[in-house]
Nucleotidyltransferase domain-containing protein
Amino acid sequence: MVDVFAVAGVIVKQIEVRYPEDIAIVGYYGSYLQGRATERSDLDFFFIPSTERGRQAELQFLIGGISFDFYPISWERAERMARFEDWNTTIIADCELLYVRSEEDRTRFMRLRDTIADMKHPSKMPAMMNKAELALRECFAGLDRFRLAGLRLDLSYCRTIGQDIAGHLFRCLGYLNQTYYTRSWGHYREQVRKLPLSPDTLESCLDTIMFSRSADEIRSACERVTLDTHRLISERREGLEGRRSYADRLKGYYEEERGMLNKLLTACETGQYETAFFVAVGVQDDLSRMLYAAERGYGPGFLGTGEYRDYYTKFGYPDLVSLLDPNDFEPLRLAVLRLIERLEKHLSSEGVPLNRFDSVAEFEAFYSLPR
């Protein structure tokens, strides 16, 4: 059996000689750290280079039939891992350091672990739920692949799509539970079983995806577990408690959005339907999302049935999209003017300051004041 730590020792020794200023961190994780290594296990190790030259230490090699991959992770990628934006958080959270260039590097690395702990705080739930929905989007994309495959959807390709959907689903559930996995392929299910939030149909659907020889059964299972997970996220989002705040969410919004509203008015006056179409839809949807966030204390999800638009209707804003008509722009133009008036009054009533000036001199007097 290859002494993998002797291999690591050779590498660290060479780093100390050849790259003393170019590599900040060397660490290992995985089976050897977790006490489950076998005679075929490699050493999962990585390094964080501090210079471009340090990247030259990367090397893939074999010793006695055991593969080794000594690969670089940039500080930027390590930070993404810590924020759960790169699905390899365990590498940072659960590694053992073999080499540290300086105490500054050690402190910087340990701050990443503080970030990981912070991502588990209840206040991070809305952000983590957004990540879960983005992962679930990929599951819906996988469902489209079933449809697009047509006659090419044989068992092999069906299982390939199913495996991809399952992988995104595992990631989605990790985000939803504000956690990460310490083991990957072949060990996701045992970790998911311990999560407090998962769809009831998960186990049976995964069994179908892995063991069924029917393309229709696999496709149906993928659709069912994806939709059930979507419902779970929607229910969880409805249960969130947020702080209603217009001042925090909408400060500066009107001043910026007024530019798009002016563009829309010009499009109406000059008969530019394509511009009117895209701007009207964008303005209405964006304002709907902003009102939802101000009222609920968190933004709407990336998936859903458009329920975030309810506040737009509730507050009496005009439906610009339904008024789009290439043969008659006047109703839309008048609706935009009503929207501007309504939005100004609404924001003012909620205590949102509006930076509006009638002249350069008036602006100069304002801008000269200390802030």
Q: What stands out?
A: Strands lie at 23-29, 44-49, 59-63, 66-72, 96-100.
